[in-house]
Amino acid sequence: TNGSPVRRHRAKTPAPKPVDCPTEEPAVNWRALEVPEDIWTKALELYDEVKALKKVQNRQPVRKRGAILAALMFILCRSRGYPRTFAEICTAGNTTKRDIGMYYNLMKQVLDKEYTAIQRAKPAEFLLHWCSVLELPPWMASAASCVYDRADGLAIVQGKCPISVSAACLWLIIWTFNHRYALERVGFSLPEDTPVTSAATPNLPCLEKSESFVTCDQHNVCKTACVVIATLTSVFKLLLPHLSVLVDGLLVGHL
């Protein structure tokens, strides 16, 4: 209006947000896995390295980024001493077991041996993590691991998935602890034909619960271990007739 030229400012194009910036949800919810952040950081670094490899370029590395990161997290968690099940990684990465399995096999082909020379995780490692999530005392993880070893030695659970057996062993310890005084009176021995409900609970109405007990139930165990209640029940039924042998000495100091 005063005769001076009107300056037109070109709108600046907003800079693209960096991948996995703090305002966005990461491709894998690593916090839900309860692992150190440096494992997630390393997974992002490895993804940037492998996505340029020819073997990976042929397998949709951009569109399947989440599945690749989930597979990398599975590998890194195990190699760093924080083993997590495929099911846990699937939930955290919102992806399928099929995709994780496919990219897990691919990552084993392209990563250095320091990441791929992975020993099978021990039940004790899963149990310790589950007890942490469920806020159960650490001794229960040790006791459940001992039950697993005894059941395995007695060939009670042959052919069963280690994850399912681990979950059933933990539930056995929880249930036994919650009824410890009543069970102690019968020497932790139950009739072999003791009925078990479809919710993995012995049908013994007269067996009272101890005054102090843990509130974690079988459904909490199933959710944390990512197993279905029917699977937990089927394994629990195999364990229960051997209760006195499986828990012998494990509740000492907790009675």
Give a description of the structure.
It is built from 13 helices and no strands. With 255 residues, the protein is mostly helical. α1 (37-50) packs across α3 and α7 packs across α9 (162-178). The chain is elongated, with a radius of gyration of 25 Å.
What portion of residues is helical? 40-55%
Q: How many strands in all?
A: 0
Low-pLDDT ranges? 1-9, 15-19
The fraction of residues assigned to DSSP E strands is under 5%
* Gyration radius, in Å: 25 Å
The count of helical stretches stands at 13
Question: Which helices and strands appear, and what pairs or packs with what?
Answer:
Layout: H1 37-50, H2 54-57, H3 65-79, H4 86-93, H5 97-110, H6 113-116, H7 123-133, H8 138-153, H9 162-178, H10 180-185, H11 218-225, H12 229-239, H13 243-246
Helix pairs in contact: 1-3, 3-4, 3-5, 7-8, 7-9, 8-9, 9-11, 9-12
